[in-house]
Amino acid sequence: MAKRTESISMDDTDRVIPRPDASDDGADLKSLDPDAMKLAGMGYKQDLRRNYTVLSVLGVGFSLTNSWWGISAALITGISSGGTVLIIYGIILLALISTCVGISLSELASAYPNAGGQYFWASELAPRRYANFTSYLTGWLGWAGSIFTTASVALGTGAACVGCWQLAHPDLTIQPWHVFVSYQVVSIFSFFFNCYGRTLPLLGQVTLWISLVSFFVILVVVPAKATTHQNANFVFAHFVNSTGWSSNGIGRDLVGDWMEVTEADWCVQAFIVGLINTNYSFACLDCATHLSEEIHHPEKMIPIAILGTVAIGFVTSWTYSISLFFSMTDIEGLSGTLTGVPLLALFNQALRSKAGAIALEALVIATGLGCLMACHTWQSRLCWSFARDHGIPASSFFSKVNSRLNVPLRAHLLSSVLVSIVGCLYLGSRTAFNR
Question: Which of 83, 152, 252, 397 would disulfide-bridge 239, Cβ 3.0–4.6 Å?
């Protein structure tokens, strides 16, 4: 089926997204299934086979967002910016906000089921004179966000692997290059799992169940094995402000003496700033939208996957956080652990067994690998669809789909190489990866 494509460039005055030619043969359109016909109506041909089911798309979407894993990765950072109060109530607040975001994404995905997602919608809905700019900017920001998110997940998973080794070998002093090598290994491992399209739907379901089973095991084992437990006041009412935003810290230096600011004001600011860590657990809800061209009836199935991700994320992350907070004994010991992985130190405190702590952390690592695989699926579809609309250099090369593997292999390779390059920042500065 012929189609006319136009480049997403800042100099164009036409619409960003391609439109079907008036010369399209009606007979050709009649031979397409309803999903392919709707895609043709947007100006695209069916390049990828629709092998996903609603459960597999939900698996990929939730494996990427993976709210309870996100809480694990940003545990101590979140506590220092508001204590347990920040995470317990922050999850509720962010779940409500994410529900609103999910509803908006679902509505747009239902109306325009396209792998381009946000940048395609920006082109369709923005005023004509701003369509190119908004679509081009949205596309680049979305793709860049997927690269850095993948790097963040790879770092968290790689650091957990190194932390387990250090716990088993206490004489080891972790160096940045240890984490860097682990980062690259897990990233390359996940890259290869995304090179064969036929297995990706099944992989999405498997990673979903691995995440849920791991969550349940940790939820039960940690509080059951902990020798002492915190009281309810600590879990639901303990506030800590270690950000420096206080009347005796940098906050007073910023506003000077001319403004009357109470300690409560700084606590509110610390809480708001700290929400970025809780938000990490509900990020990337758009993942399912970029699989719209790989599932039948995407206008119905994609919204189910998006809102299902939010619902599962809230239940798992909230109950998981409560379980961990009741089991904590030494918060300072967690932040100063030689493993560099506070969650692993918490497991060791609760179980009083290095082997048991490593076993539970292995479940977290397995979940992290599932998250990383979903990240690679997400970023490859973003890169491919954006290249299809001529949004990146050498777009004609990177927009090709490997018909034998049923994946946009070139776009996948490009995104993965960029993730590896971003990982080099860790050798220069850990602050660059501070979540």
Answer: 83
Nearest CA to 52 among 304, 307, 342, 394? 304
Give me the phi and psi of 50, to 5 degrees please.
Answer: -90, 80
DSSP 170: T
Question: Tell me, what DSSP letter sits at residue 229?
Answer: -
Reported as half-sphere exposure (CB side, CA atoms, 13 A), residue 22 has a value of 0
Q: The tokens 């095991």 sit on which residue?
A: 217
Asked if residues 54 and 204 have their Cβ atoms less than 8 Å apart, the reply is no
Backbone angles phi, psi at 402, to 5 degrees: -75, 105
User: What are the tokens at 23?
Assistant: 């010369």
- Nearest-angstrom CA–CA distance, 122 and 283: 20
- Nearest residue to 367 via CA among 295, 310, 292, 317: 317
pTM: 0.86
- Short-list 381, 411, 373, CA closest to 188: 373
Query: What residues does 407 pair with on adjacent strands?
Result: 402
CB 138, CB 119: distance < 8 Å: yes
Residue 425, pLDDT above cutoff 80: yes
Measured in Å, how far apart are the chain's first and last C-alpha atoms? 46
Tell me the C-alpha distance between 257 and 253, whole Å: 8
Report the alpha-carbon distance of residue 288 to residue 303 in Å, rounded.
8
Please write the tens of the pLDDT for every residue from 188-206: 999 999 999 999 999 999 9
Could you tell me how far CA 417 lies from the centroid of its own chain? 18
Q: Cβ(391)–Cβ(137) under 8 Å?
A: no
**Is 60 exceeded by the pLDDT of residue 6?**
no
Chain mean pLDDT for the chain: 86
Q: What is the DSSP letter of 339?
A: T
